[in-house]
Design goal:
Largest sheet: 5 strands, mixed
Oligomer: single chain
Strand content: 15-25%
Number of strands: 10
Number of helices: 8
CATH class of the largest domain: Alpha Beta
GO molecular function: DNA binding; DNA-binding transcription factor activity
Keywords: DNA-binding, Transcription, Transcription regulation
Protein name: HTH lysR-type domain-containing protein
Helix content: 25-40%
Distance between the termini: 46 Å
CATH architecture of the largest domain: 3-Layer(aba) Sandwich
Strand order of the largest sheet: 7-6-8-5-9
CATH superfamily of the largest domain: Periplasmic binding protein-like II
Structural class: alpha+beta
Radius of gyration: 20 Å
């Protein structure tokens, strides 16, 4: 616990918990109290981590996820594509200068990964092929947690533009200093439901919804 608290203190730039003058109890700092709301909201998204397992078992009808998130053996169709950008909070000490490859690798990165032990993301395969690597400081299981973390830290995150554009008032984005494959958003369903009339109707409805990006 002490190691985890030390890492959080370093990340947030605040002691978070301080000893009470009398006794061994700890009390939260003002910064820790201010974090309760964003953290509570972020924790609500944790339930989506189990989607892939449920899909494999036919636990629900449709799954909308990235191409990498579709479980093997599922039927799927593409909903659209988007470009990856690097996001940072407004007022970030890096400033607004264009990214260079070396500068990108030297930043402290936040990565979205539903696998708790996986400290790599979409960009790491490319960087490895170029003989480079980036500093991954923290991972979160869902993209919905990213804006809150970025706004409270000096971390940066590479993600599809559509997933961050709604937070433009607090987050700014930059073009990557290298070519990357586009992000693909997919609609998947269990093979046993391929001819199911109700599921077919749901699939058609999902495909006709306005997309937040250009296909």
């Amino acid at each position: 616990m002490s190691a985890q608290l030390s890492r959080l203190r370093e990340l947030m730039g605040d002691p978070l918990l301080v000893p009470i003058q009398k006794g061994r109890s700890m009390t939260p700092t003002a910064r820790a109290l201010a974090l309760r709301g964003p953290l509570r909201s972020a924790l609500k998204t944790l339930g989506s981590v189990i989607q892939s397992r449920q899909m494999e078992e036919g636990g629900f009808d449709l799954l909308i996820d990235s191409s990498r998130g579709i479980p093997p053996g599922m039927k799927y169709t593409a909903l659209g594509t988007d470009q990856f950008v690097m996001a940072q909070r407004k007022g970030h000490p890096r400033g607004h200068k264009p990214l260079t490859l070396d500068g990108y690798c030297e930043l402290n990165h936040l990565v979205v990964s539903p696998e708790r032990e996986s400290f790599k993301g979409y960009m790491d395969d490319y960087l490895r092929s170029a003989g480079m690597s980036r500093r991954i400081y923290l991972t979160v299981p869902t993209a919905g947690m990213v804006p809150g973390v970025l706004m409270l830290t000096d971390l940066v995150c590479t993600m599809p533009r559509m997933l961050i554009q709604s937070r433009h008032e607090a987050i700014e984005t930059f073009e990557l200093p290298f070519e990357s494959e586009p992000f693909q958003l997919m609609l998947a369903w269990h093979p046993r439901d391929d001819a199911d009339a109700a599921i077919l109707w749901l699939r058609q409805l999902a495909q006709n919804l306005p997309a937040p990006f250009q296909t």
